[in-house]
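User: Could you check the structure of this?
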Amino acid sequence: MQEDLKVTVQDDSDDSNDDSDHDTDFETGIFVKTSIPAFFMGFNIGSRDAAQLVALVTGSNLLWLQCKPGIGGNRTFYKNYWPGESSIYAANVRCEDFCSSTPLTCIPTPTLCWYVLKYLGEIVVRGNLAFERFIFGSSFDNQPAHELNPLFGCTRKNSCIDKFNGVSGLGPSGISLTSQLDNSEFSYCIENLNDPFDEKNILIIGIKSGGVENSTPLIIREFHYYVNVEGINDKKDLRIDNFKSGGGAIIDSGSSLSFLYDIAYEKLDYIGDSLERRYFFLDKYQHCYIGHLFRDFKGFTTIAFHFDGATMELDRENLFKQVYSDVVCLSVLNVAENGVDHSLLGVELQKYFYISFDMNEMPVNFERIECEYFNNWS
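Assistant: Sure, the predicted structure tokens are below.
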């Protein structure tokens, strides 16, 4: 039987002006690095308060760090965490308490609970489960400091990252950070992924939306968040009324790219037909165009993604990215051409939106809004 993970939050802020309408466990700033198309959360860990930077990923479920002594620095922004330097680190974890009903494959030994975590069918990380002290806020942003003692993965080997310290999985399983906080709601607001000085991006654990009404049913399946895309259209001649997203589209903040089935992808791809077309291999082969996003796409019309009960209007910055000085690439790829078996809404499509997840009422809410709105709401 899996033990319920419930993390106590020690809040160093003054709660004398508490507002019960904003039932928030904690908030923390989100950071971007121009060299990596993702967004990150910083914290300090262990008895030495070692600084770490991890990607925020709704498509994953485990909070894990690279545990490799003497590795990191310039390559990962911060030196990798090493449990031998912390007197608080505790690896006395029983696999049977935490591994059932999770995406982990666990291997118990007399002294450690080893795990293997797969993502999209591929082995990503291996390591052991443990507990440690995490401090969010404080030295990384101007938010109050919050101390947690969550279960995390101390990763000894991974095949997916070497440019940052780890991943904070925000997925729906019981081992994710949000689940361990025993909070059914979380949200985030992100803006320009190319601006490392944008301080308005924010992650909120708890309730702070004030009732965003643009919502669609949230589907949880195979430890992922899904939504049903029912149609796509623009203000001109693009219209897909009978679009099916192949059992739903995953919302994944850890993927810069999005993936759609043929009928939707081919219609989106026609947008750049007036420009010289090129193929570039970046993370994958992408359809690209010779030009500049803000010069040659001035006439780009808004594209609306229609969900059950909600609409998400996307502009040129959501669907295209300037990858070189004279090359613009479509941030949406064809499912069939890339060996993916589902539609996926990546982080580029989510830019300039406030997105919230509610595991009690089961909607996902989104609204195009300036993130500063939530930073000023106290």
